[in-house]
Amino acid sequence: MPRPFNSAAIGLLVALGGFMPSWPVAAVAELPQPVTDWLAQAKSDCPGGFADHGAVRQADLTGDGRPSYIADPHALSCAGSPHMFGGSAPASIELFVTAPSGNVVHTGGVLALGYRIDAAAGGPPAIIFDTHNKEDEAGSFDVYRWDGHNFQMIQHTSMAAPPVR
User: Fold this and answer.
1) Are 55 and 71 in contact (CB under 8 A)?
2) CA 25 to CA 160: how far, in whole Å?
3) In terms of CB atoms within 10 Å, which end of the chain has fewer, N or C?
4) What's the sign of the alpha-carbon dihedral 16, 123, 90, 74?
5) Domain for residue 127, yes or no?
6) Which of 124, 122, 119, 20 is nearest to 63 (CA)?
7) Whole-prediction pTM
8) pLDDT per residue over 63-108, tens digit each?
């Protein structure tokens, strides 16, 4: 059974910069097709003034050295529709990985307000999502890790007092 996730530890790691680096991808032309398709869909949903403020970040999320991508709609904006891509509400943060074949595949998304990547020695990093959903309306930190086939939730820590289990 996983240990409870300490939210104070998250704050400390953020303050100390202990998270794994990720970086914005320079240009849409450099992105693999599934990621450009995601961006193209978002742009088509907002014909009146679409802007990308670094929505796609690249990092090694599987621990195999191949690039992975996180697409966060919170970093998109749409003129005239400030909440179209989430605003201050949860939105589906999408995950893409490069398979051993070299193909980039969309592995799914997590409904969240944001995320952090926590490096792990000798394995895939943990992705910590700040989530809010019907099951835990107070919010939670949900930790996901690549298991060789997909991302699996390995820990759920409620922000409710007392924690919701």
Assistant:
1) yes
2) 36
3) N
4) positive
5) yes
6) 124
7) 0.78
8) 999 999 999 999 988 887 766 776 677 889 999 999 999 999 999 9
* Residue 2 falls inside a structural domain: no
**Nearest residue to 86 (alpha-carbon basis) of 127, 122, 132, 125:** 132
Is residue 165 a part of any domain in this protein? no
Domain range for 63 is 7-158
Nearest alpha-carbon partner for 62 in 5, 111, 135, 120: 120
Please spell the DSSP secondary structure of 95-159, one letter per residue.
EEEE-TTS-EEEEEEEEESEEEEE--TTSPPEEEEEEEETTEEEEEEEEEEE-SSSEEEEEEEE-
